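Posting for a labmate who doesn't have an account.
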Amino acid sequence: MSDLLAEILIILFEVLCCDIFFKIFGKLRYKGWINIIQLISLECCVFIAAKVLSDLFIVKQVVMASIFAMLMYWHIKISIKKSFVLALLYQAMILSIDYLTYFISIELCLVSETAGSKYSLKTVLVILLGKAIAFLCVLIIGRQLREKHTDILVDIDWLKLLIFPIFTIIIIAAMISVFRNVETPEQVMLLLISSFGMIGMNIVVFYFINDIVDRETQMYEDRIFRLQVKNQAAMYRSISENFDKQKKKTHEYKNQISCIETLVKKSQFTKLEEYVRGIYSKLDKELDAIDTNNIIVNAILNTKYQEAQENGIVFVLRINDLSGLRIKDEDIVTILSNLLNNAIEACKKCDVTRRVLKLKFVNENGMIKIGIRNTFDTPILYENGEIKSTKSVRTEEHGVGIRNIIEVIEKYDGSYVIKDDDHEFYFSIIIPS
């Protein structure tokens, strides 16, 4: 393997690690083939800089960091200032790992300071060992800094992913240590192809897995969007139906007043009393039972209150004036609709004598407090320490609904507690108002 090809491949590994590192802090600016063009441009610029400035160490590092910053700013959606800071951090990390690996190899007498060729077998293996360690460091940094709710891979799966780069590091270190006397060009070529191949496979496997995770994330976000649309459509449909009912009632009231006026004129007071009593009892059933001074909250709570009554569920509420909520309407719909839908469905599976749903929604002491407590009979499923769903026909909606609620809570810097005890489920939310 020629020195030129070895240098091109080593720089390519650095470029791809840089791409992975920057993606931790931002998303791609463009979609499609332009991203490959950007990475090829970065490879060419870094290669030219490395060749031209090979004898000017400090100038070379400054130029390399600047190239990484400018082209990654074109590649990733971040500010130019942040791009320069990340480029400096990445360049410092690469240099530190390379020199640490090199000096450890010298101390262990694995390579000699007076190696004849810049790209001799052992030197290349030491460089590749450094790139493998840098790749592992980037993966660990990404895991620690990436937002948890957007990460599909759980801890166990992520640890499995790390086995391959760790195995690669061990194998390359063993190659440096064991193959001290390589006699034929064929042996040299075999070792170089094996080591470059393992590093390359690490990068390829990562991009394949990352592509799968991106698709899973997109599918998850699509499910969330469909659930939001479904909940909002149900809420707006309820408002529209109530408005239509109100229009019909207005017409009925005119007829009822006319009838009352006729009975009064005819002095049929006994008949009038019966008629008014009948109207009153009917109105008592039809009027909205809940008023929080918030139209959206009223629409959801009254709709779910009626649904609970129809299913024989005792619905206990504690509410106060919610006119000053700072939570967006769509986020209110997300929280209340998901909580109440899950609670009502769980109660419907209980014995008729045990169907109880309690809701607290108050704005007090600078805090928005939402708490729901409901009975259930079907076991609750947990996955990796988080509630997944209850066993029902549409388990995927429940799982997505719960995570959707949590995302809204985190959006407003709130906190939550989920418990289940003695066939009673409890979800408590506190959001600063």
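Reply:
Got it, the structure tokens are right above this. The longest helix spans residues 185-265.
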